[in-house]
Amino acid sequence: MKTLNKLLITAIITLAITTPIHAQTPATEHNHGHDQQAASALTLDHGKKWQSDAPLRQGMQSISDAVMKNVDAFHHDKLTKPDADKLAQHINEQVTFLVTNCKLQPQADATLHVIIGELLTGADALKKDPNSMQGMPTLVKALMQYPEYFEHKGWKGIKH
Q: For the chain, how many structural domains are there in total?
């Protein structure tokens, strides 16, 4: 039964990773004074990745590292409620750091809003249920998409 669960979880995560995100972060969750553009999908800068700044790189790397420390536990149905709560709190703290410190051009910021929306959605789902298919798979998907849209030299992302 555990093998079947593991295969099912792997299949769901694979599907989540390969399905495009079409989400918009609520303005109340991430609003730091830019001219907000409605972002319903991730976009590139005329076919190129957006430039990142040091706070963006620092915050996203911290989120990625924390998620990576918990992926195996999730895959083996061993992600505890306290560990999931700690991870969700860390993600929320890092998102607050990003909101406070990152300075991106408006179009890049709009793209980042989509990724942050997914991170917050995943963190919230983890707090409700550590084994939720809307939790860890959503986080992994967002973290795998981040380097597709933002330059981040030295990115140590999700190895999945």
A: 1
Cα-Cα-Cα-Cα torsion 32, 154, 21, 48, nearest 10 degrees, comes to 90
* Domain span holding position 80: 2-13+50-149
**What is the rounded distance in angstroms from the CA atom of residue 50 to the CA atom of residue 153?**
12
Residue 160, in any domain of the structure: no
Identify the sign of the CA torsion 50, 18, 114, 153: negative
In a domain, 155, yes or no: no
pLDDT digits (tens, 9 = 90+) for 51-101: 999 999 999 999 999 999 999 999 999 999 999 999 999 999 999 999 899
136 within 8 A of 46, measured Cβ to Cβ: no
Report whether pLDDT(106) > 70. Answer: yes
* Lookup result for tokens 């550590």: 130
Asked whether residue 157 is assigned to any structural domain, the reply reads no
Q: Does residue 156 carry a pLDDT above 50?
A: yes
Residue 122 located in a structural domain: yes
pTM for the full model?
Answer: 0.75
Q: What is the mean pLDDT of residues 126-141?
A: 94
Helices (H), 19-80: 54-75
- The CA distances from residue 21 to 2, 83, 148, 159, in Å, are 29, 26, 13, 20
